[in-house]
Amino acid sequence: MSDSEIVHNIGEVKRRIAAAAERAGRDPDDVVLVTVTKTRSVAEIRAAVEAGAVDLGENYVQEMEEKAEALAECDVRWHAIGHLQTNKIRKITPFVSLVHSVDSLRVANEIDRRAEMDGRVLPFLLQVNVSGEESKFGVAAAEAVELAGQMLELEHGLLVGLMTMPPYSEDPETNRPFFRRLRELRDRIIDSGVPERHMRQLSMGMTRDFEVAVEEGATLVRVGTAIFGPRQ
To answer: Cα-flanking dihedrals φ and ψ of residue 105, to 5°?
Structure first.
């Protein structure tokens, strides 16, 4: 895909995010576009950055390391959005801005430990499997309230919200109940006594359904294909 097409697509995605936010009576500035760079070349990513992409999401630790080094001169924030193995966490804690995919206390504890070694506080999201699909990572919704409370005890890993991935569907409306379920779970967690500052972020919505996710309260949407085109 040409640089000009990438520029156009980023503008179009931002326009659609703003329109969805306005339909829901929300401030469009409350929604962050995370440009998903999985399998994309450094040249493609650089074109996106020059077009205004600031938050970049990567699924794989090794790819993120390589791309972060190649784009070191760019003023961007890296988001770890894929499933994390504990033995890979040490590689990303020095530079990543937000981890979206924490699905156990063990992973959260390792983020806390490594972030302390790096002399920083690292924000993360608790990934919840709201659909109950066995193929999806994430904790069950029934476990999330207790787990969120336990994660408040960390000093260098900072819980700031929830993330989910609904089932694949060509119809974005099919996923609306799952996005609504995550928002309602966030509210229950706050009602349980978890301070609101630990539940400000909802990472949900991708290329097919990000507008519905924004209407249901997403603060972070993870979009790749709508920007770069289908993966090769």
So the answer is: -65, -30
Is residue 61 within 8 Å of residue 30, measured between CB atoms?
no
Residue 20 above 80 pLDDT?
yes
Radius of gyration of the chain (CA): 17
What is the per-residue pLDDT across 80-127, written as a single tens digit (0 to 9) for each? 999 999 999 999 999 999 999 999 999 999 999 999 999 999 999 999
Angle subtended by helix axes 3-23 and 42-50, to nearest 10: 50
Where residue 57 sits, what CATH number does that domain have? 3.20.20.10
Distance of CA 106 to the CA centre of its chain: 20
Predicted confidence at residue 126, as pLDDT, reads 98
Q: Tell me the C-alpha to C-alpha distance, in Å, between residue 200 and each of 8, 30, 59, 79, 166.
A: 30, 10, 23, 16, 20
Confidence of residue 29 (pLDDT cuts 50, 70, 90): very high
- Give 98's strand partners: 79
Tell me the residue ranges of DSSP E strands in the chain. Answer: 32-36, 55-58, 77-80, 98-102, 122-129, 139-140, 157-163, 201-203, 220-223
Residue 201 belongs to domain spanning: 3-228
pLDDT for residue 134: 77
Looking at residue 194, what is its pLDDT? 97
pTM of the entire predicted model: 0.96
The backbone torsions φ and ψ at residue 101, rounded to the nearest 5 degrees and listed phi first, read -120, 45
55 phi and psi angles, rounded to 5 deg: -105, 120
Domain count, the chain: 1
Answer whether 58's CB lies under 8 Å from 67's CB.
Answer: yes
